Amino acid sequence: MDLGLSGRRAAVAAAGGGLGFAAARALAAEGVQVAICGRDRDRLEAAAGRLNEEAPGQAVHPVVADVGTPEGAAGFVHEAARALGGVDILVTNAGGPPPGDFDSTPVDAYGPALDLNLMSVVAMCKAAVPAMRERRWGRVVAITSITVRQPIPRLILSNTARAGATGFLKTLALEVAADGVTVNSLLPGSHATERLRALSGGDLEGAAAEIPAGRVGDPGDFGALVAFLCSRQAGFVTGSAIPVDGGEYRGLL
């Protein structure tokens, strides 16, 4: 299926690995010009090199940036727009804050977590969406977490911050829909990423035990869904928060 994305320009945050890398790979395969960011220059440049090898002619631009602060998040989008000539597609993403429960998590840990998983989303949208509205076309896809629907024990910081981001994204979607800009979020459950391996002690089979599908997710499949939400065909999908979790979320709605 031709997704109608060839020649579009995308800024994909935290794409040195994991689900961000998978999203950048899927978009580049569709002919999208891509800028990616991360904090580790060597890891980021290696990721860009892999993407350039897989999609010849699609120059992927690595931008060293820390989206853990609103300034760093906005700076990434501005640098991506400079490198690409504009940003038509924004994929927001960031690593997760440290694990902990109510008793073990101090109050002063919440500010950095909110910056990482809420304010980074706000800042990137502030930097990218106004130009999308002027052009009457744009796509925002936020990578959040299944924790916004079904809080995960010992991830109280992530549960809190990502739920706030979901409220922001839904509100933004309603405000910009008439301008040809869609805003959606994907709520990944357990996928075969470095973060899951760290949280599970490398036990991916154990991580899959409670998943109805009987396995953890493939980042490549997740990336394909990101690309579809950016497509011409998905132009009537906005304001959605879509679980991608093998059935792990048990609620009806």
UniProtKB/TrEMBL annotation:
Its EC number is 1.1.1.100. One of its GO terms (molecular function) is 3-oxoacyl-[acyl-carrier-protein] reductase (NADPH) activity. Transmembrane segments: none annotated. Pfam families: adh_short_C2. It is an enzyme of class 1 (oxidoreductase). Belongs to the short-chain dehydrogenases/reductases (SDR) family. This is 3-oxoacyl-[acyl-carrier protein] reductase. The lineage of its organism: Bacteria, Bacillati, Actinomycetota, Actinomycetes, Streptosporangiales.
